[in-house]
Design goal:
This protein is α/β, with parallel strands linked by helices and 332 residues long. The chain is built from 14 helices and ten strands. The chain folds into two domains: 64 residues, no CATH class; 257 residues, 2-enoyl-CoA Hydratase, Chain A, domain 1. The strands form two sheets. Strands 3, 4, 5, 6, 7, 8, 9 and 10 form an eight-stranded mixed sheet that branches. A two-stranded antiparallel ribbon has the order 1-2. α1 packs antiparallel against α2, α4 crosses α13 and α10 crosses α11.
């Protein structure tokens, strides 16, 4: 992965991966691990020294994450230990029953969806899944869905409409798959139909960007009443690398593209493209996944309780007006 430092450590069963701008943190945590493996003697109080180093780690993390550049935000959003859709379901959803296939071509594992219970609400829950292991990433096509994935999402949203269930979507994708086979099966049409279905629902729909929100592949699941973003996630019309390859004919300008795209949650909130930023724990979601998921659940629950009180026709009308206003602001 671009931007990852080779320095890693193994806490429990999860490999800790440090980003290139976290070198100081990695050094400090390396010293902590060394101290913890030392036997206690009269010359050093190991517990006290570990406490001092841990305080330094927290200060360094705070200083680092308060001033992340857009390109560094991209790296954080792509971190392999960041919570994925399956983690969201595992932590926040009970009685989840996955539903597969688009009833037309086949099953796309990049988009997972089904019916479950979220904090007392029955809901249709849909998300993009990148996978955690190498095998899972291959099976999910690294979270890049093909037309059958978007047609499955549309089928599930229509199911939600029929049974008056709210729709919760969780997005983490670099974009829709751009391959020839996807184009042959109508990728653009499938994305457009998915957006159309989102805008036509008379039940609440809440979308959360949990990592990357790339291009039409993300918008297909994010034309929602409320669009939320985790603090260090990104949302953009194109990836920085794709933008750089078009404008500069070189991927080496990805950092410049990230600056120009205004893809951070903070930029998008200022432009009223998203509705809320969900704070992440110190050092971002990949360091404290359970804390991050709890905050995500609280934000989604708050939005859902507000939306279920609105009548169906007003809900759809407000949603359409919201996106029309975004288009007008963008053209002015």
């Amino acid at each position: 992965m671009v931007g990852l430092d080779p320095l890693t450590e193994q806490p429990g069963n999860r490999m800790r991966v440090f980003l290139d701008f976290e070198k100081a943190v990695a050094d400090l945590e390396g010293k902590i691990e060394v101290l913890r493996h030392l036997s206690t003697d009269g010359d050093i109080n190991i517990v006290e020294e570990v406490g001092k180093l841990q305080s330094k780690v927290e200060r360094q993390l705070k200083n680092t994450y308060q001033k992340l550049s857009p390109w560094q935000k991209v790296q954080v959003a792509r971190h392999p230990n960041r919570p994925h859709f399956r983690d969201v379901v595992g932590n926040l959803v009970s009685e989840f029953t996955p539903l597969a296939g688009d009833r037309n071509f086949g099953e796309d594992k990049a988009i997972v969806g089904g019916i479950g219970r979220f904090r007392g609400f029955s809901a249709v829950i849909i998300g993009t899944e990148k996978g955690s292991s190498t095998q899972e990433r291959i099976e999910t096509n690294f979270g890049m869905a093909k037309p059958e994935g978007y047609r499955k999402a549309r089928r599930l949203m229509e199911l939600a409409e029929r049974f008056r269930l709210p729709v919760l979507t969780f997005i983490d994708t670099a974009g829709a798959y751009p391959g020839i086979d996807a184009e042959e099966r109508g990728q653009a049409e499938a994305i457009a139909r998915s957006i159309e279905t989102c805008l036509g629902l008379t039940v609440p729909i809440i979308s959360t960007i949990i990592g990357e929100g790339g291009s039409g592949g993300a918008v297909a699941l994010a034309a929602a009443d409320r669009v939320l973003m985790l603090e260090h996630s990104i949302y953009s019309v194109i990836s920085p690398e794709g933008c750089a390859s078009i404008l500069w004919r070189s991927g080496e300008h990805a950092k410049d593209a990230a600056e120009a795209l205004r893809l951070t949650a903070q930029d998008l909130k200022k432009m009223d493209i998203i509705d809320e930023i969900i704070p992440e724990p110190l050092g971002a979601a990949h360091r404290s996944r359970d804390v991050a998921l709890a905050s995500l659940g609280d934000a989604v629950e708050k939005a859902l309780r507000e939306l279920v009180a609105i009548d169906a026709n007003s809900l759809r009308s407000r949603r359409r007006d919201k996106f029309l206003a975004i288009s007008k602001n963008g053209s002015s």
